[in-house]
Specification:
This protein has 122 residues and is mostly helical. The chain has six helices and no strands. It starts with a helix and ends with a helix.
Length: 122
């Protein structure tokens, strides 16, 4: 099973992985899997988000994904984060969508090179 298939599997069977459809635990699961792969799963994700949004940011991808999923949310850290069930679902769906979209770029050497060129020009 490759990375994309694994992420799709997790997305489609979240309960099997101990996830309940909430953003923070789901993001931590993906981050943990990235760490288990020595950073290889999401290497370039931060840069890809910057290119995709057309702006550099020092904000961690956890916050950037959440801001994209819920643009009206004022995110001030996970310790104060209280989302409604609908917001949680939106955030989780956006997280999986972005990671899967990124993996298509990451796995295409030309697209990945192009993304890094665009990132350098920001």
């Amino acid at each position: 099973m490759n990375d994309k298939e694994f992420i799709e599997h997790v997305r489609d069977r979240q309960e099997m992985y101990g996830l309940s459809g909430t953003y923070h635990p789901t993001a931590m699961f993906i981050m943990g899997f990235d760490q288990a792969r020595a950073g290889g799963l999401l290497r370039g994700f931060h840069e890809w988000l910057a290119v995709r949004n057309g702006e550099l940011s020092s904000q961690h991808w956890l916050g950037r994904v959440l801001a994209e999923a819920l643009p009206d949310l004022r995110f001030r850290g996970f310790e104060n984060l209280r989302l409604e069930q609908k917001q949680e679902r939106q955030a989780v769906d956006r997280l999986f969508s972005l990671v899967l979209e990124f993996l298509d770029v990451r796995d295409d050497p030309r697209a990945l090179a192009s993304m890094y060129v665009q990132y350098q020009s920001l």
